[in-house]
Amino acid sequence: MALHGANLGTLARTCDAVGACITVPRFSWVPEALARGNTLRKPVCTHRTGDPLGWLARQRERGARIVGVELADEAVRLADLAPARRPTVMVLGHEQHGIPPEALDLLDECVEIPMVGTGSSLNVAVAGSLALYKLAGLL
User: Fold this and answer.
1) How far is the C-alpha of 3 from the C-alpha of 51, rounded, in Å?
2) Which DSSP string do the residues of the chain spell out, in sequence order?
3) Pairing mode, if any, of strands 46-49 and 22-25?
4) What do you get for the CA distance between the two ends of the chain, in Å?
């Protein structure tokens, strides 16, 4: 939980910084992680779902742009990611396993963060924060 809590807290603070909300699954450790990670003076805009795939499908049906941070053949580089001009959902996967295949089918586009070092991925909170700032038009 410590690793997940640190990542969740970082992402929640980034969401607040760019004017976004965070949607989290209804896992038992999530409320404590959000409370522990919230260094702000007010609650972060948070939505909870017990059905992440269903929630994502509903957002797409409502016209939201669904962007996944994932290495994929058709992925655009972070520098080329267009800022959000309509409601947009950013999807992050597990640091080791990525976005689940059933969720990949719901994405409108993928964005990748180029790396020149020997690592193959960034920490999920770092990758999510970079993409959120770009989507918000702040980078």
Assistant:
1) 23
2) -HHHHHHHHHHHHHHHHHT--EEEE--TTHHHHHHHH--SSS---EEEES-HHHHHHHHHHTT-EEEEE---TTPEEGGGPPPPSS-EEEE--BTTTBS-HHHHTT-SEEEE----SS-S---HHHHHHHHHHHHTT--
3) parallel
4) 31
Q: What is the dihedral of CA 64, 76, 19, 91, to 10 degrees?
A: 60
Q: In this predicted model, what pLDDT tens digit does every residue of 44-95 receive, in sequence order? A: 899 999 999 999 999 999 999 999 999 888 999 999 999 999 999 999 987 7
Helix 124-135 to helix 2-18 angle, to the nearest 10 degrees? 10
**Residue 15: which residues within 8 A CB-CB, separation 6 or more?**
21, 22, 44, 45, 132
Buried b (16+ CB within 10 A) or exposed e, 90-109: bbbbeeeebbeeebeebbee
pTM equals: 0.89
Type of residue found at 5: G
Question: Which structure tokens are listed for 33?
Answer: 């992680």
